[in-house]
């Protein structure tokens, strides 16, 4: 398995491992240089586990075996900097902050690609073509994503309703119930306003799309369709919703361009008209 940010990836899989497997994975992260020179038996002895536990751990991390993992670590070591796992520190240099955030952004985009479901995207695009109006909503950083979605689809002539007034959106759902779709955006999938709008949509027979980080979230379970985005790096850097925002925006881009490609020539004509309208306004 090739992974540009291998050690960060291993760290994010810890919750899926048993107690013994976590001990082994921690050794991978803390001593990558030593790991590549050990046998499974030797590592089992060092970690007070067993060779069999080492093999099981590597399989859970999506490697073919311990040798495969060691090869991946060997490829990664020249790029490894322990600092990428750390929080932003007091008086940190711009160069150091840039490297950390760019590394996290790159990792987030890689993981977003893994989460994207072709089937889900195609099903949602089908629904968008079958409805006249999109109603989009998000709170906080997710509101920025909702605005991006609103702007993109409006530019190609799709009717989109976007507002932070949830009472207004609830009435819009009821009044457009025969021809609309609700897209709720929530990183956690537990935002009360987003969930309440999804419940209103269900009451009026309106299809709902949830964009969230977990298929086990309340929003994903309520929605008729859901898109899962990556937010794994958020756990170690909560100064801002950087990782989830990047992942959400990329997921929306994939949805938008998938929609665009279904009727590309017509949409390009519409986008040209809207661009001309902006230029005319500026003049």
What does this 3D model show about the protein?
There is one protein chain. With 283 residues, this protein is an alpha/beta fold. The chain folds into two domains: 6-85, Arc Repressor Mutant, subunit A (Orthogonal Bundle), CATH 1.10.10; 114-282, Glucose-6-phosphate isomerase like protein, domain 1 (Rossmann fold), CATH 3.40.50.10490. The protein has 14 helices and five strands. The chain has helices at 6-12, 19-30, 32-35, 40-46, 51-60, 66-76, 94-115, 118-130, 141-155, 166-175, 192-203, 218-222, 242-262, 264-282; strands at 133-138, 159-162, 180-185, 207-212, 225-228. It has a five-stranded parallel beta sheet with strand order 2-1-3-4-5, sandwiched between helices. Helix 1 (6-12) runs antiparallel to helix 2 and helix 10 packs parallel to helix 11. The chain is elongated and about 70 Å long. It starts with 5 loop residues before the first helix and ends with a helix. The model is unreliable at 80-85 (pLDDT under 50).
